[in-house]
Design goal:
Number of strands: 10
Strand order of the largest sheet: 1-2-3-4
CATH superfamily of the domain at 1-49 and 97-127: Stage V sporulation protein G
Largest sheet: 4 strands, antiparallel
Structural class: alpha+beta
CATH topology of the domain at 1-49 and 97-127: Arylsulfatase, C-terminal domain
Shape: elongated
CATH architecture of the domain at 1-49 and 97-127: 2-Layer Sandwich
Order of helices and strands: EEEEEEEEHHHHEE
Number of helices: 4
Distance between the termini: 84 Å
Length: 206
């Protein structure tokens, strides 16, 4: 198995421990996204993609993050010691989604990603630099702007002159009122008011 591509997204704010996100491709056919490059005590290291661990509320069964003090569904107070402890006695709050199962694979990923990260730093200093990382979160955040006409691929706004010159559909002529049947027209005197049958709308239909 070989890492055939690494894509890096550098963080804009300098000074943070999180330096970049990255994705790696194995054998040109399998991609793992959202690896993190974090500054450690001995230099940058690669953290695997992970998810927050949860526990069920004893009252309603709703899933809550292990740091939550109250249930987000029913408001029941939750125990504080719900997290499993690791070998060092620290609470385990996250679990890796994908990770190497031996040191050889971990070292291979670490070496290749850090090498690509350093190369990306050099490339970012050049004019016209553009990251190749596919950031789907940014695509989703631009969706409301596109719907409002602010993103790529939208139809251009029509100017005011075009709106004023737009041809309006011709209004249809009003229909003549329904005529009452012959037996109604020959009815008693006083049955008609201003040319309309007594009783208002729909008279003479039944």
């Amino acid at each position: 198995m070989e890492i055939t591509e690494v894509r890096i997204k550098l963080m804009e704010e300098a000074g943070e421990r999180l330096h970049a996100f990255c994705s790696i491709t194995f054998d040109d056919c399998f991609v793992i996204r959202d690896l993190k490059i974090i500054e450690g005590t001995n230099g940058p290291f690669v953290a695997m993609p992970s998810r927050k661990l949860t526990s069920h509320c004893p009252q309603c069964g709703y899933k809550n993050h292990l740091r939550a003090g109250y249930c987000n569904q029913c408001g029941t107070r939750l125990k504080e010691d719900r997290a499993v402890k690791d070998e060092d006695g620290r609470a385990k709050l996250y679990a890796d989604i994908a990770h190497p199962i031996n040191s050889r694979c971990r070292e291979m990923i670490q070496e290749r990603v850090i090498q690509s990260y350093q190369e990306e730093l050099r490339q970012s200093q050049l004019p016209g630099y553009v990251s190749r990382y596919d950031d789907f979160d940014e695509e989703y955040s631009r969706a409301p702007q596109q719907a409002a006409g602010g993103g790529r691929g939208e139809r251009p706004h029509r100017d005011a002159a075009a709106e004023q010159t737009k041809v309006q559909p011709a209004e249809s002529e009003p229909r003549a009122p329904h005529k009452a049947p012959a037996r109604e027209r020959a009815g008693r005197p006083g049955d008609r008011r201003d040319g309309h049958p007594r009783g208002g709308f729909g008279a003479g239909i039944f």
